[in-house]
Design brief:
It contains no helices and 11 strands. By secondary structure, the protein is mainly beta. Strands 2, 4, 5, 6, 9, 10 and 11 form a 7-stranded mixed sheet that branches. A 4-stranded antiparallel sheet has the order 1-3-8-7, with no helix packed on it. The protein starts with a strand and ends with a strand. The mean pLDDT is about 95.
Length: about 130
């Protein structure tokens, strides 16, 4: 069983930055791809970014490309989401997710592929 704990959410003005963290309670060296998803009020949860287990592959939703960067620190089994140039439409609850993957596999884009989820952290961007 893997537990994920997100942190780093908050309120910021448009154009500002936030850095989200996701700490996994897993055995060091575990082979988990990790992803970030978000859910805005009244909308379905959507993929934001994903990173493969060693960080060799990353994927982003078109809406965040060039503004968000996903990274990971395997020694701590922690994933990060650096969010720059934030827009009001980025306002949502952000969730971290993890799934066991084999080598050379990119992180899945579909939320149904993930086994483990965090509780979520609120990000609010005001105009």
């Amino acid at each position: 069983q893997v537990q994920l704990v997100e942190s780093g959410g908050g309120s910021v003005q448009a154009g500002g930055s936030l850095r989200l963290s996701c700490a996994a309670s897993a055995r060091p060296g575990s082979s988990y791809a990790m992803g970030w998803f978000r859910q805005a009020p009244g909308k379905e949860r959507e993929f934001v970014a994903g990173i493969s287990r060693y960080g060799e592959y990353t994927d982003y939703a078109d809406s965040v490309k060039g503004r968000f960067t996903i990274s990971r620190e395997n020694a701590k089994i922690t994933a990060y989401l650096q969010m720059n140039s934030l827009k009001p439409e980025d306002t949502a609850v952000y969730y971290c997710a993890a799934v066991f993957t084999g080598p050379f596999e990119p992180a899945p884009l579909e939320q149904r592929s993930y086994n483990y989820w965090g509780q979520g952290t609120q990000v609010t961007v005001s105009s």
